[in-house]
Design brief:
The chain is mainly beta. The chain has a domain of 153 residues: Histone H3 K4-specific methyltransferase SET7/9 N-terminal domain (Single Sheet). Strands 1-2-3-4-5-6-7-8-9-10-11-12-13-14-15 form a 15-stranded antiparallel sheet, with no helix packed on it. Strand 10 and strand 11 form a beta hairpin. The longest helix has 9 residues. About 4% of the residues have low confidence.
Length: 230
C-alpha cells in the first residue's frame, strides 16, 4: 500500500491572535480592569521605554522611564490636590524597580521638601531637607533619617554641626548660639549633650547677648605647671 502523506495541520488561529496582541516597541494605550491607564512604549508585552501611567483610584500620574514593567530611570510622580484638583508634583528624580533611587526631590505637605540621594525608596546618602518651621538640615542620611555628619540650621540662625544617629544628635559636635553669642562644643547622645565646654563666640555682634560674659579659664602659673609636668 502506498504511503499517504497528509498536509501539515494549519497553525491554530489563536497563535496569530496572540502575536498581534503582543505589544513591543510601538506606543500603545492600554486600560487595566481596575481602570488604570498606560500610554507609552512596550517590550515583550511589558511597559518599557517612555510612558505615562494614570491610576484611576487616586488620580496619580507617573511620567517617565520604564524598564520591564517597572518605573526605572528618570521620571516624575504627581497627585491631584483634593480641593483644587490641580496636579502637584510629589517626586521628581531617578527610580529603580519602582522605588526612588539616585538623586531626586520630594515635596511634602506643608511646603516641606527634600533634595538629595535616595536608596530603596528612602533618603540615604547626602541630602538637604527644608522643614516647615524654617529649619534646614544638610548632610548624610541613612534609612530616611539623618545619620553621619550633618548641619542643622534653625530659623533663628542658630545651628548644630556634628554627628547624627537615627535622626538625633550623636557624637562630637558644636552648637552655635548666634543669638546670644555663645558656642557649646561637646559630645551628644540621642539628642542630649553629655559633656562639653561653653565659650563666648561673637558675643559683641549677637542680637541678644547674655548679661555677663563667660570668664576665660586660665592657669595662674602656666610656666610653673609645665615645668612641674616635665
Amino acid at each position: 500500500m502506498p504511503l499517504v502523506r497528509f498536509p501539515a495541520p494549519a497553525e491554530p488561529l489563536w497563535h496569530e491572535w496572540d502575536r498581534k496582541a503582543q505589544k513591543s516597541g510601538l506606543r500603545h494605550t492600554v486600560y487595566a480592569v481596575n481602570g488604570d491607564q498606560y500610554t507609552g512604549e512596550w517590550r515583550d508585552n511589558l511597559k518599557h521605554g517612555k510612558g505615562t501611567q494614570i491610576w484611576k483610584r487616586t488620580g496619580a500620574i507617573y511620567k517617565g522611564d520604564w524598564k520591564f514593567g517597572k518605573r526605572d530611570g528618570y521620571g516624575s510622580y504627581s497627585v491631584p490636590d483634593p480641593v483644587t484638583k490641580e496636579y502637584k508634583k510629589v517626586y521628581t528624580g531617578w527610580w529603580k524597580k519602582n522605588k526612588k533611587c539616585g538623586y531626586g526631590t520630594t515635596f511634602y505637605p506643608g511646603g516641606e521638601y527634600y533634595e538629595g540621594e535616595w536608596s530603596g525608596g528612602q533618603r540615604s546618602g547626602w541630602g538637604r531637607m527644608y522643614y516647615g518651621d524654617g529649619s534646614i538640615y544638610e548632610g548624610q542620611w541613612l534609612q530616611d533619617r539623618p545619620c553621619g555628619q550633618g548641619m542643622l540650621r534653625l530659623s533663628n540662625e542658630n545651628r548644630y554641626e556634628g554627628g547624627w544617629k537615627e535622626g538625633k544628635k550623636h557624637g562630637p559636635g558644636k552648637f552655635f548660639y548666634l543669638d546670644t553669642g555663645q558656642l557649646f562644643e561637646g559630645v551628644w547622645a540621642a539628642d542630649i549633650p553629655k559633656y562639653g565646654t561653653m565659650i563666648d563666640f561673637g558675643r559683641d555682634e549677637a542680637p541678644t547677648p547674655t548679661q555677663y560674659p563667660i570668664p576665660k579659664i586660665e592657669l595662674a602659673d602656666p610656666d610653673g605647671v609645665l615645668e612641674e609636668a616635665q
